[in-house]
Design goal:
425 residues, mainly beta, Immunoglobulin-like, 4-stranded mixed beta sheet, 4-stranded antiparallel beta sheet, 26 strands, elongated
Length: 425
């Protein structure tokens, strides 16, 4: 074989020397193969891994145990067999390919006779009937006994992960990994906690149809501020918003506390003295309890809902004398909040969109936002120290209760004139 290889090189060099135009003849180097077999207590289906510097390959033995790697160059190769539940002699072979095929790289398989057990318990709010999934070198699933115990038998040395599952429960830890090395694994432990059943909170929601409106200062309004310009046509998708401001009673039901300054007003009065961050905590708790997805309205959703297809200063008209019918504000509030729903609603059947308490919305405040916002379902996420508040309150003059009026406060600010209402996705 060596002489054949040398003759091939010599022939290539001779032919190349006769080329007059600088051409080259590419002489491909020869390739070789390694073949062998697995015998013993298993032959077929054994993984055979071939590795060398910068190269790896894998094959599986045929039914009679044979395998072959072809197209190899000269060099050193390591051959390693593997199959779950078996050991091999030798564990691997280091072979050197030099100008010839290699044959007879054999291994003997021996079934592993030693097996082990892994056992544990589930305690806490439930024990029995928990599905325990075993994954790793062996995969399996079983269900805990009534007392919460479980045992996997017939395991071999290796790494395993145990994961409990039962509808209506969480588990700590969520899973546990162990390594079996010539011994049983015991003491695998999980604690089950029952997930509380969802309980609803009575919040009256109103479906608002999608549409377009003129956002910002209306043509008939002479009291607008710079941040209400330019007026622009905005498209809003349909959504659901609470008919009333969130009440002290609803806050108490969810948070088991009442931060309001006007507690004497009662459970049906709007909750106030809540920061934007407090409201986020309320929403998170409410969503966890009900399984629903409440959130604050965007500023655009709020104004669309407040206007209710009107383009006037207030949804009741352009004459502030109408405000007495729809809002609690400085002229009629007596310096206090009032029970929700006592004034006339707008055409979307929403109450107190002007007056009673200011309302947090989700947007970050940006003075020139109307100049840069998109025209469909906008929401300001611009970097800002402030969150937007809308609607005016019991202590404010009529101008603060205008549909387009914007104001702001920091997310940690609280005041007896500041509350909120919710959107339900």
């Amino acid at each position: 074989m060596r002489n054949t290889y040398q003759k091939l090189i010599t022939t290539c060099l001779l032919i190349s020397s006769f080329l007059l135009l600088g051409g080259l003849i590419a002489c491909a180097p020869p390739t070789f193969s390694i073949n062998g077999s697995v015998s013993g207590e298993v032959q077929g289906g054994v993984n055979i891994e071939l590795s060398s510097t910068g190269s790896d390959n894998t094959t599986i033995t045929a039914a009679e145990g044979s395998y072959i790697f072809e197209g190899l160059g000269e060099g050193e190769y390591t051959i390693t067999p593997s199959l779950l539940g078996y050991t091999f002699t030798p564990e691997s072979r280091l072979l050197s390919v030099t100008l010839d095929d290699l044959t007879g790289a054999g291994f003997t398989a021996t079934r592993i006779s030693n097996t082990y057990m892994a056992s544990g318990t589930v305690s806490g709010d439930t024990g029995g009937g928990v599905a325990i999934t075993l994954s790793g070198d062996i995969s399996s699933t079983l269900t805990t006994t009534p007392d919460g115990s479980f045992t996997f038998a017939g395991l071999i040395n290796g790494s395993y992960t145990f994961t409990p599952n039962k509808n209506g429960y969480t588990f700590s830890p969520a899973s546990e990994s162990v390594t079996i090395a010539d011994d049983n694994a015991t003491g695998i432990s999980f604690t089950a906690t029952q997930i509380p059943a969802y309980t609803d909170v009575d919040i009256t929601m109103v479906s608002i149809p999608g549409g377009t409106f003129e956002r910002g200062c209306s043509d008939t309004d002479s009291d607008c501020f710079d941040d209400e310009f330019p007026q622009s046509t905005i498209t809003i998708s349909s959504f659901k918003i609470s008919a009333f401001e969130i009440t002290q009673g609803q806050w108490k039901e969810v948070m088991k506390s009442n931060p309001s300054s006007f507690t004497a007003c009662g459970d049906n009065c709007p909750v106030e003295t809540v920061s934007w961050s407090n409201v986020r905590d309320f929403i998170d708790t409410l969503n966890s309890r009900t399984g629903k997805q409440y959130r604050l309205p965007t500023e655009a959703e709020w104004e669309y809902a407040a206007r209710a297809n009107t383009e006037t200063t207030w949804h009741c008209g352009n004459n502030e004398t109408c405000l007495d019918d729809i809002a609690w504000y400085s002229d009629n509030s007596g310096n206090t909040t009032h029970k929700i729903g006592q004034k006339d609603p707008n055409d979307f059947n929403l109450y107190d969109m002007s007056g009673n308490v200011w309302e947090w919305v989700s947007d970050n405040y940006l003075e020139n936002y109307y100049s840069v916002s998109p025209d469909k379902d906008p929401q300001s996420t611009a970097r800002s120290l402030y969150k937007v508040i809308r609607g005016g309150g019991w202590a404010d003059l009529s101008g603060s209760c205008r549909s387009s009026n914007r104001s702001r406060n920091t997310p940690i600010y609280t005041s007896a004139y500041l509350g909120f209402r919710l959107v339900l996705d």
